[in-house]
Write a structure and sequence with these properties.
About 25% of the residues lie in helices and about 40% in strands. It has two helices and four strands. A hairpin with a 7-residue loop joins strand 1 and strand 2. Helix 1 crosses helix 2.
């Protein structure tokens, strides 16, 4: 029962996409792409994992704020990796690829 207070009962793709779009917009990042996929996890676990792959553009400080805000989001999300590339558009602009996992009950 304690797990259900932290992990939602449903995957709710629309809620994940909406939350990421909202956080990106509030922190000054441009959401360029987003994909979700179910991940094969531990069959004995009480939860499933949804892999999130995000492409974002903006400043480094905006990325830090984005990650801090994502961490404080109601839905439990673990950031797995962050890759950065220099965007061709401008000196202050960077491209980011953020991979994360969201969890939902089986």
């Amino acid at each position: 029962a304690r797990l259900s207070s932290v992990i939602p009962a449903k995957k709710s793709t629309a809620e994940i996409v909406s939350a990421v779009q909202n956080i990106a917009g509030r922190t000054g990042l441009q959401l360029v792409g987003l994909s979700l996929a179910d991940q094969k996890g531990d069959t004995n676990a009480d939860y499933n994992i949804a892999s999130i792959d995000m492409s974002l553009g903006g400043s480094y400080l905006s990325l830090v704020t984005f990650l801090e805000t994502l961490e404080k989001n109601i839905r439990l999300v673990d950031v797995v990796s962050v890759d950065a590339t220099q965007a061709t558009a401008g000196i202050e602009s960077l491209g980011f690829r953020v991979k994360a996992n969201a969890y939902y009950l089986k």
